[in-house]
Amino acid sequence: MTNIVILPGDGIGPEVAQEARQCLDLISDRCDLGFDFETHDFGGAAIDRHGVPLPETTLAACRDADAILMGAVGGPKWDGASERPEVGLLKLRSALGLFANLRPARTIPGLEEASPLKAELVRGVDILVVRELTGGAYFGEKHLGDDVASDTCTYTRAEIERVAHVAFAAARRRAQRVTSVDKANVLVTSKLWRQVVREVALEYPDVALEHLYVDAAAMALITNPRRFDVILTENMFGDILSDELAVIPGSIGLLGSASTGEGKAGLFEPIHGSAPDIAGLDVANPAGAFASAAMLLDHLGHNDLARLLQTAIEEVIEDGCRTADLGGDARCSEFGALVRQRVEERLGKFDALKSLVAMNRGCCG
Fold it and tell me: Is 183 an active-site residue?
């Protein structure tokens, strides 16, 4: 039995998470994977019911899970709360040791015109951002006074080494190029970052390494995004750059992410926000949640099924099913149903191929 925890969260989170869960349920049933799902409160919804964004029962379930699928968290409703919903996400990442955030973005053929950039710039873009997730200013000591405020940014050699290994290992499976992004001309944490990344790179002689300052990287993402393969960077820079990258394929609603680290469980979530203004209207784009579900399957070792699901997502979009963020009028539920239909069709072809191979083996036996 494989235990998958669902954290629907806030806003459109429950809608997109439900669509992705139904697809995972379908795949599990058809392929006898034994997925067992349980749903827990998280984020603003947890504040409303329990007074905190990450209840102990939710954390305990996540610790025991094989994988976690999240919808979205946050919204202006909780601006005055003692702890914002997003604090629950930071605590969950820290508690589970999820130090590496993987955010892939590729341009889907036929969708180039949806990008705010010129089609010739975005055609063929395929980038993976590897963001360090549990260090830096987000987790440093904080001070807020009437006249002075500070956020301490700290990185250790061990923190940089472990996320660098994730990036270089990923690059080996891709185009074998890593761009390490820092601000080493100003920040001492970036000086250490650059030094340690260089040392780790020696263990991957087949992977090319370049260094870019974060301001230059931000500009290059817009002017020449195809120059990048894997971008490795620290927490804050990764947060900013991956959101910038997200609009290049056409919509932030298309992209999923994975957070992995020390334990067996990974956290998988679309990178879009909770969009409370459209919550409950059945107009959200669930593609990012589906893409996150594909990354979840890959994390669990079901690599062929992960590719099958990702292909189904792209085929549905290429066939013209576009939600409002992509200039269309398709419903969230309509998009989800079409993806599941395409998954069913592909699984049927897969079963037929397996039967044919088995028959051929029997005839030649």
Answer: yes
